[in-house]
Amino acid sequence: MRIGVIGAGVAGSLVVDALRKAPGVSVKGFERVARGGHEEAGTGLNVGPNAMKALRLHAPEAHDRLRAVSLPWESWFIDMVDGTRVFDIQLSQVAEEPGIRLAWAELYRQLRTPVNDHFAFQHTLVALEEDAAGRLVPVFKTGAGETVRDGGFDLLIAGDGRYSALRMATIGPLEVEFMGVGMWRLLVPDASDCPYQDYGQWFHRNNRLLSYRLPGGAAYIAGSFGLETPDGEILPEHRTAQYQRSLFDPDEGAPCAAVAWMQKQIEPLFDDIHWARLQVSPLEREAANGRVLFLGDSAHAMVPTLGQGATQAIEDGTIAGTILARGGSLADIGKARNERVSFVRQFSADASDTILPGTDAAEGSREKMGPAFMAKLRRLYTDVPGPDDLI
Ligand SMILES: Cc1cc2nc3c(=O)[nH]c(=O)nc-3n(C[C@H](O)[C@H](O)[C@H](O)COP(=O)(O)OP(=O)(O)OC[C@H]3O[C@@H](n4cnc5c(N)ncnc54)[C@H](O)[C@@H]3O)c2cc1C
Question: 345-366: per-residue pLDDT in tens?
C-alpha cells in the first residue's frame, strides 16, 4: 500500500514515524517548508499529559526525547489580577504523568528528527488529480517554483494543519464559528526576573492572561479579550500595547506582581505578537471515498482553552499510526478517535465559559475545582488507548 502524508507537522511526523517500518507499506511525506525550517517558531506551547501518555504507549522514543528537552507541566492555578486565587491543582490529581512546556521549534525538531529522510521538503500541495487506476495524485509546487507529481497513492493523509490544502481540495471550505474572543501570544526570550514558574492564568473580568516559563530562560504569554460581537474583528484600537495592558488593570489597587510583570513585557515585544480569534470548525475524518484521512488540525481544529490542539494531533498521529501499521482501516481510526475528539472539543468549548464576555470568571473558575470538572479533566488526561486496546 502506498501512503502519502501532506505536512511534517505534529500529526504528520508521528504517522510517518509509525508507518516507515510497517510491513507492506511504502510511505512518503511532503512538507511545504525547507528541511530544518518551521513555523510559529517564536512561540511556546504546553502539551497535555494525555499526549505524553499516547507517546509513552505508542512512540516511547519520541516520549523520552520530548521529556529530555522540555520542562514538566505539573500544576495549574487561576488568579484574579489582584492575586486572589480561585483555582489551584496539581496535575498528578487527574493525570498519570505531567504534561510538558517547550518551544514550538523544539517540538517540530524532535518529531521530525527520525522522519526527515522520508519527507520531500519545499513541496507545497497545490492540487489533486486521479490516475487511471483511481489512485490520488497530489500535485506540488517546489521551492524552485516547479510543478511536480510523485505518482499515485492508495491513501493520502492530511497532516497539513488548520488551513489544510488537502481538505480544501476534497471537501472545500469549512463552516467556521467565531466566539467573540480575540487572542494574542508572545514569547519573552529573557524571563530571568519572571515571578512564577509553571502554568497560570490571571483574569480581569473575562480578559485573561495565561503564562508559563519555557526551557532556556524564556516565558510564553497569551492574552485573550472580548470582542464586540461573536464574529467581530480585532480592531486597530485593540492592537495597541496601551489598550492590552489596560485590560488587566484591577478596578482598584495595583495588579499582583505576576500581572505587573506580564504587562511590562507587552510593549517592547509588541511587534512580535501573533493575533488570532477564538474559532471552531466541524470534525472531518475522511474524504474521497476513503482515499483521504484527516489528522490533527486538518480534522478537528479546536479552541485552545485546554491546550489540546497539538495534544490531540499527537493522539491522532500515534493512534492512527498504530492502526494503519497493523493493516487497520479508516473506519477503525474513526472508531478509535471520533468519539474521543468530540468529547475533547465539547469539553474545551465548555471550559471556555470564563473568557466569554459577560460571564463571572471568578465564580466559573471556582466551580472548576468541583467534582464534575475534575472528573472530566481526569477523563481528558488519562482516557488514551494503548496498542493492545486497538484492533
Ligand atoms: C501560536 C500558537 C500557540 C499554540 N499553543 C498550543 C498549546 O499550547 N498547546 C496545544 O496543544 N496546541 C497549541 N496550539 C495549536 C497547535 O498549534 C495545533 O493544534 C497543532 O500544531 C496541530 O498539529 P497538526 O499536525 O495538525 O498541524 P501543524 O502542526 O500545523 O502542521 C502542519 C504542517 O503542514 C505543513 N503544510 C501546510 N500546508 C501545506 C501544504 N499545502 N503542503 C505541504 N505542507 C503543508 C506546514 O508547514 C506544517 O509543517 C497553538 C497554535 C498556535 C498558532
Answer: 999 999 999 999 889 999 999 9
Q: Which helix (H) or strand (E) holds 90?
A: strand 85-90
Give residue 338's identity as a one-letter amino acid code.
Answer: N
Q: Are 195 and 153 in contact (CB under 8 A)?
A: no
Residue carrying the nine cell digits 488570532:
276
Contact 330, 293 (CB under 8 A): yes
What digits encode the pLDDT tens for the residues 135-160? 999 999 999 999 999 999 999 999 99
- 280 and 302 Cβ atoms separated by less than 8 Å: yes
DSSP states of 349-364: HHGGGGGSTTS-HHHH
Ligand 1 pocket check for 33: Cβ under 6 Å: yes
| CA dist., res. 243 & res. 237, Å (int) | 7
Full-model pTM: 0.97
What are the strands of the beta sheet with 85-90, ordered from one edge? 85-90, 75-80, 199-204, 207-213, 219-226, 177-188, 274-280
Q: Is 11 in the pocket of ligand 1 (CB under 6 A)?
A: yes
For ligand 1, atom 14: residue with the closest CA: 309
Q: At what angle do helices 371-382 and 330-350 cross, to 10 degrees?
A: 150
- E strand or H helix that includes residue 260: helix 257-266
Residue ID of nearest Cα to ligand 1 atom 38: 160
Task: With beta carbons less than 8 A apart as the criterion, state whether 324 and 18 touch.
Answer: yes
Would you state the cell numbers that stand for residue 252, as one nine-digit string? 482598584
Strand ranges (DSSP E) for 170-309?
Answer: 177-188, 199-204, 207-213, 219-226, 274-280, 286-287, 292-294
